[in-house]
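hey m, so remember when u said the tokens were messed up on ur end? i reran from scratch. heres the input so u can diff it against urs
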Amino acid sequence: MKLACQEGLVPGKSLGEKLEKLARWGYEGMEFWGGGIADRQKEIEGALRSSAVKASTICAGYRGCFLDTDPAQRQLAADDMRRLLDVAGALGALGVICVPIFGGPRVPNLAPLADAQKLEKDLFVAILRELAAHAEAAKAMILIESLNRYETHLLRKQEDSLAICKRVAHPNVAMMADFFHMSIEEVDIPKAIRKCGKAIRHVHLADSTRMQPGTARTDFRTGFAALREAGFKGYMALECGILGDPEEALPECARFLEECLGG
């Protein structure tokens, strides 16, 4: 398992400086925000060539909404996802993190034919099946993320994302696990991880307060042990607020996480 950090959390005047600091502090990957990343592709490729740190993933950044009632908004999200997958493949990143919808449902409840969530899940599966071929060609993955009840009504538990992956049934569509969201939605985080097993291809790290790991109550040791049992060897990226000076907090966090990994 490899530690990564989102670009925006790292202090520095240039991407090269940020990458140098991450490497020195014990991180192996950087996660990039997807918004505008196509315009930065050459900059990022150049900085990565001279760094030991690799691009781990692209975090969303697409416009529109996959589950909007307006076909134009769904098409916008799908078109942006295709472009982000192309960039991810070019950067050597694992793939692009995908959240189908924030907030409440936008499609109507058509019970007894189908309620809103069934319609949304059926629609999302159909869209993912269309996008999967592009992901395969780009050599990148679509990584479905479950959130928490305060951010979405739809995919909240890890098993929700797993069910979507099983329905799509394509090797370039997988899921990711976020420790902060799991701390709200899962009764037993290690059990939830074990249930999803090899379907988990990426991880987000934040403590129960959404600050950096090691500052609150989440038991990362047992979660990491469950990931190891599942054969997970990918990146685990910090997606959190930072308490204190990042110049001190980020290397301290890396040391804490390595201890939790048993290193």
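this time it looks ok to me. The chain is about 45% helix and 15% strand. if urs says something different then somethings off w ur setup not the seq
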